Each structure stands twice: as C-alpha cells, then as structure tokens.
Amino acid sequence: MLSSSSSRRTTRIRAPKAHSNNKQQIEQSWSEIQTAIVEIQNKNASVLSFEKLYRMAYNIVLKKHSDMLYNGVRTTIEDFLSADVKPKLVSMLSDPDEKNYLKLLNQLWDDHLISMKMISDVLMYLDRVYCREHHLPLIYDVGLNAFRDKIIKDDNNRLGQRTTNLIIDYLNKNRYGEIVDKYIIKAIISMLESLSEDASDSHFGENYYLRSFEPLLMQSSHQYYLEKAAELLSNQSGTMYVLNVKQLIADEETRFQLFLPDFTAPKLTDLMDNDLITANLESVLKLETDGLSSWVCESNIELISDVFKLVSRVDSKKGGGQEA
C-alpha cells in the first residue's frame, strides 16, 4: 500500500533547454546573413530583405555571439575576393593593352565599395556595439582591409606592384608628351590612398599610397629629372637650359595638380628644384659662351629675370629653413 506522501508526489516535467534552440537559431541566422553577403557581392541585392537581415544580425549581437558574426563576415568577404575577384585581375595581366587591367581594377574596386556599403548597413548594430567597444575596425573598413590583403598585397604584393608600376609608367609617358587617361590614374591613386595599413603593422597610420607608391614615384621622378638635366647640360647652352627648365617646372606643377594628392606635390617640388636648379644652375651660369656674363653684356633682361625666378625658388626654401 502506497503511503500518503507517495500518493501526493507528482512527476515534474522539465521544460526543454533553450540553449540548443538558441544555438540553432543563431546558426540559421548566420547562414542566411552569409548567403546574403555573397549575393550582395554578386550584385544580387535586389532579392534580399535588408530589414530581415538587420534584425537577424541584431539578435546575434544581442545574444552575445558578436565575435562569431564579426569573424564570419570578414572571412566571407575575404573568400569572395580570393575566389572571384583576384582571378579576374590575374587573368588580365597578360592583356597587351595595360589600360584594360587598370579599368577592370577600378571597376572591381567600385563594386567592392558598393557591396561594403550595403553589408555595413546590415551590420550597423555590430559596428555600434561590438566594434566600438572592442576597438576593432568597422565592417566597412574590414572590407577595405580585405581588398588590401587579398587583392593588392596578396602573393607577395603581385597586383600591388603591377598597379604601382603601371601608374608610374603612365605618368612618365605623360612627361614625354603622351596623352593619358587622367580619370583612371586619379581613381587608382585614390584607391591606394584608401587602403590603410593594419594596426599590427609597423607602418600603422600610413596607407598603401604613402608606404608603397609614393617612394617609387619619388625614385622615378628623381631619375627623370637627372636625365633631363644631363640632356640639357650636354648642349653647353645656358639659354637652352634655363628656358627648358622653366618650361619643365611649369609642366610638372600642372601634372602634380592633375594627377597627384596635394601632400605629394611639395615633396616632388623640392626634389625637382634640387635636381634641376640647386645641382646645376651655378655651373650653367658660369658657361663662357652662353652664361650669365654673356646675358649681361647682351642686356638679356628677360632671361636674367627667368634665372632670378629659378634662384628664388631655392633661396626662399633656404631662408625659411634658417628662420625656423
């Protein structure tokens, strides 16, 4: 016979743990977000519900899975760039028309920026809560860094080096009178400026343009100025040297304004003035048959005025340095 206590005992039915359901929900949400990211990168964004995607991302962050979401987004973006974008550019390296490579690079870069804007809109809450609290790059910047690492700097900087060499080559062609595409040069340079160095890099705070492109541009320009100076000096004509240097400087300053960032122009100007004026003008003025003494005798005021302007370019810098 059952005791009274036994008869009153009831069986407790435990509610199923929510953990497994939550995990499945998180995984399902992430799967949909991941698929959506690839659709965006493939230019199929019109089939997506951005409101739904935002809610799913919001819930993942709310349930403390931000790290999984952040790392997953980064990997998905990088995988697409490596598998889809990079091969297109690599295949274009053998194109005999080098401009086609630059056009494709610019188009793929523009597409990537559009994709990253949409992806970052979906993940706005992740940016606001997780990225800022942990001092991590925002999702849009994650995309820029991915393009830097998986496209430009990947494979020992293969595409980055190719891009840099082509742009510098175009600038040199323009120096020798060839008409070049101003738009594509400025667009690619702007892209290189947008690619910041990673926080773990010793050059953090710089960008790809400053670290990799500008030094090669300075080196190439230095070589160009030396060659032009040697060519003009070989004529043993002071008049020809002064007039040609005057025109060369004017052409270069126009070129700086057309193609290059404002902060590069002063560096190139200093280099140009040193190579063309400081290094050679004194010996030019001392030429017996066509130097300063002959210009004074001939009262060649216009040419003497040009010389004074050239000297003033370098003397003003010396004076500024002494005052400092």
From TrEMBL:
GO annotation (BP), single: ubiquitin-dependent protein catabolic process
InterPro entries tied to this protein: Cullin (IPR045093), Cullin_N (IPR001373), Cullin_repeat-like_dom_sf (IPR016159)
Disordered, as annotated region: 1-26
Pfam families from the UniProt entry: Cullin
TM spans (from-to): none
One function term, GO molecular function aspect: ubiquitin protein ligase binding
Residues in Cullin N-terminal domain copies: 30-317
SUPFAM superfamilies tied to this protein: Cullin repeat-like
Family that this chain belongs to: Belongs to the cullin family.
Protein name, UniProt field: Unnamed protein product
Naturally occurring in which organism (per UniProt): Ambrosiozyma monospora (Yeast)
